[in-house]
Amino acid sequence: MTKILVTGGAGYIGSVLIPKLLSDGYEVTCVDNLMYEPTSLMMATINKNFKLIVGDARDKELMKPLIEKNDVIIPLACMTGAPLCNKDKVAAASVNKDSVVMCSELSSQDQLLIYPCTNSGYGIGEEGIFCTEESPLKPISLYGKLKVEAENILLQKGNAITFRLATVFGISPRPRLDLLVNDFTYRAYFDKTVVLFEAEFKRNYLHIEDAADGFRFAIKNPNLMGNCFNLGYSEANLSKRELCEEIKKVIPDFVYLISEIGSDIDKRNYIVSNQKIEDAGFKAKRDLSTGIKELVKALPLLKRTQFANI
Q: Which domain holds residue 89?
């Protein structure tokens, strides 16, 4: 039986991914300090093939024997997003880069490491030109820089598959309302309005179920080791204004206002090609409308202050 180690598995992506891995028949060990939602993996704990270790992914003494006895390592532990990283730069570097590099150093060439990078590393792209895996990386935030630096180190060793994830959206046992689609849908549902800065700035999006399925695809295709892939929904390279139009289709009384004064903290602006991963055999299939409708059904259960990284 393939054994998989996931750090940060109680988080937004991990709490969707781990039940899928258990359903696939893998043995899964999760290391998480449970700093956010401690109940996100409650149902997974009843599976005989699951083990939860409450601990710090930066703890070498803890991680070394765990890495040695697993076949696949998925380091999801992360301080995600520019605002959170800027709030504690030292912790951001130790979690987002150092702990990932440690996983790589402690792994052998026979083990597979699957790493979630970010396509925010493209920074500001050129208008009308799709960013491919060969495009220059120009991260503009500490978050993006740390993720890109970790990815470079992993790819140099050669036993990793890295995914440059688009902006993820959708419902999870550990929800996040600070992600753009989730945030705008929340505001549309409760406030009925949002003010847009840099309304024409674009980025790519990815449903959380597709993100999890991308990791499953990598596990089943270790021949892809040594490669990086953009991972997003190809039909969702949208500006913030276009995103709001998609939300309006689901919430008709939502109104968005475009401000010419002021700016967004996150200056990313690019469109992304996912052709490489699609050619390899995986294509994200869940569209924005699906995720927005799912969010609208779940939002009455959520409070903003509960489910954000900042």
A: 3-169+205-233
Residues 6+ apart with CB under 8 A from 25: 1, 49
Residues 6+ apart with CB under 8 A from 144: 82, 118, 120, 121, 123
Instruction: Report yes or no on 309 lying in a domain.
Output: no
Residue 261 lies in a domain: no
Q: Take residue 40 and report the two structure tokens written for it.
A: 């996100």
* Residues 278-305: tens digit of each pLDDT: 999 999 999 999 999 999 999 998 865 5
- CATH assignment of the domain containing 64: 3.40.50.720
Torsion, Cα 168 106 277 40, to 10 degrees, reads -30
Tell me what the pLDDT averaged over the chain comes to.
94
First to last CA, the chain: 39
Residue type, 73: I
Residue 79 belongs to a domain = yes
Phi-psi region of 8 (alpha: psi -120 to 50; beta: other; left: phi over 0): left
Tokens describing residue 276: 């490489």
- Total structural domains within the chain: 1
Q: Which amino acid is at 3?
A: K
